[in-house]
Structure formats: C-alpha cells, structure tokens
Design brief:
Length: 290
C-alpha cells in the first residue's frame, strides 16, 4: 500500500488542484497537511483524503512526520512526499514504487528514490554541479541527496533512519534525512526515466550573468541558520559545507543589495547567522518577533 503526503502553505489552489487531479488514483491514501493560517477544502478534485490542519505552521519537517506517522499506522509500505509547486506524471507513483521493489530483489539498500527534476522557471532539468553520482545501475543512479517533493520513502527504513529533523523547521530537511540514511550505509537513488515538473524558489534574479534563486525574506533566516547548524554535523558532505559557507557572503550581498526589501532581508539573514552560531533551532518566532 502506498500513501501520498502533500504539504501546503497558503496554496495556489489552481496549482494544488491540478497536482491532486494527477495524483488521484495513483495511491491508496492521500494525506494533506496544511500549514496555512486558514483551512482549505480540496473536495472539488479529490473525494477521499485525510486533512491535518496546523494553523500555527509547524514547519515542513513536522508536517512530513505527521504524515509519515499516519501512513505507518495505516500499514503503508511506501510514502511519496509532494509539495504544492510540483506537477507529477500520471504514472510516477507506479514507476518509482516498481524501481524501489526491484532494488530490493537486487539487494540494494535503497530507502528513498526520486524523479529527475525539471524546473518550471528555467525550463531545464536540474543538475548538481558538485554532487557526485554514487552508483549507476540500469534505471537508477545513486545520489547523495534528493529534494523532498517527489521523494518516495520505503517506510520500513523509518525505524532505522528516524523521522525528519524538526529542529531545522524547513530548509535542508530533505537533504539532512538523505545524508543521515547514507551515513548508516543505506542508499538514495534518482530514477533516470521519471521526470517531474517542479518550481524551485519564488523567482529568479541575475547578477553578472549568473542566475540565482530568490525566496521570501523569512526563508533566508532558515537557509543561513541551517547551513551553520548542519555544517557542524559529521555526516553532512564536506563539498556541501564548503560550497554553502563559501557562497554565504555572496548571497548576503546579493540579497541585501540587489533585491527589494533590502533591510528586511538583511535582518533575517543576520538573525539566521546569529542563531546558527549560537546553535538555536526550531521556528523563527521561538527566538524573534516578526
């Protein structure tokens, strides 16, 4: 049995309904976790689903965990995680679950698999410049991490790997779980022939010919803080630590000088760096007032 976990936050209803229409019938269970202040109904496009509403916004990690625990109680074998900015093909769940099942017979310890990501902003397939491929086997390529949306998890691995790290709240949650699994000798894979459309970031900007992602100011707090928190952990890849720490001053400059809301962005980044250095985690409003 396969269950889907869709996390939404102030969703674009047209986009979310389009995703649910594609998802309908692909899984036996659908859990919608809503971190928005006001509740939403999706009955227009999907009849049977479990709806969990957290108006105080518990973050992506806690939302995933609520869904994963629910699916484990229902006896599901696999869970597919999705967010509102993705659009999946109508056979994605079948294809990913088939590859996970096949990997079991080949005695490969693959605990999570994701599709190739096609970014709707750049209209290009997302490729990491530094992430090395761990293994290459027919339909699968082993990788160090995959993003949460489109990630299918073998739920039997939760006992060993554990749930998502709620202390991170949002940014880096998906990667941290993958790295933790890999530090235990387990594998993460990407399907070569399965592609998903996904929007990365809120918008794009260019500086001296280089395009970079622009997110909401509050996200900068979590991004900067979580880089500093994760950089202390031994199982986090060295290349990731070096790259993120190297680009931190550049991102600080771009987001405080080249964007609108300069002061607001700078405040969030400085607070993120401060809390990261102090080792503070959890939700922003635990430590600061908006």
């Amino acid at each position: 049995m396969i269950g889907a976990i869709l996390v939404v936050y102030n969703p674009d209803l047209a986009l979310t309904e389009r995703l649910l229409t594609r998802l309908y019938g692909q899984t036996e269970e659908v859990i919608i976790i809503d971190n928005s202040p006001k509740p939403h109904s999706f009955k227009k496009v999907i009849e049977h689903y479990t709806y969990l509403h957290f108006p105080e916004n518990i973050g992506i990690a806690a939302a995933h965990n609520a869904g994963l625990i629910h699916l484990l109680k229902l006896g599901c074998e696999y869970a597919i995680l999705l967010d509102q900015d993705s659009l999946i093909p109508t056979d994605m769940v079948f294809n990913l679950s088939s590859l996970l099942k096949a990997s079991k017979t080949m005695k490969q310890d693959i605990v999570a698999i994701g599709p190739r990501i096609h970014c709707s902003f750049s209209d290009k397939n997302v490729r990491s410049l530094v992430q090395r491929e761990v293994f290459d086997y027919e339909q699968l390529v082993g990788v160090t991490q995959i993003i949460a949306s489109g990630m299918m998890i073998d739920l039997s691995a939760i006992d060993e790997v554990g749930l998502k790290d709620e202390s991170l709240f949002i940014d880096g949650v998906d990667h941290e779980w993958c790295w933790r699994a890999r530090s235990m000798g387990l594998s993460i894979a990407r399907a070569k022939q399965v592609e998903m459309l996904h929007r990365l970031g809120d918008s794009r900007s260019k500086f001296i010919g280089v395009t970079y992602k622009v997110g909401a100011p509050i996200r900068l707090y979590y991004q900067f803080r979580n880089i500093l928190l994760l950089s202390r952990r031994p199982y986090v890849p060295t290349y990731w630590k070096v790259r993120c720490l190297f680009f931190m001053p550049i991102r600080l400059f771009l987001n405080s000088v080249m964007q609108t809301n300069k002061r607001k962005r700078l405040v969030y980044m400085v607070r993120g760096i401060w809390d990261g250095l102090l080792g503070r985690s959890g939700a922003y409003n635990k430590h600061w007032h908006h």
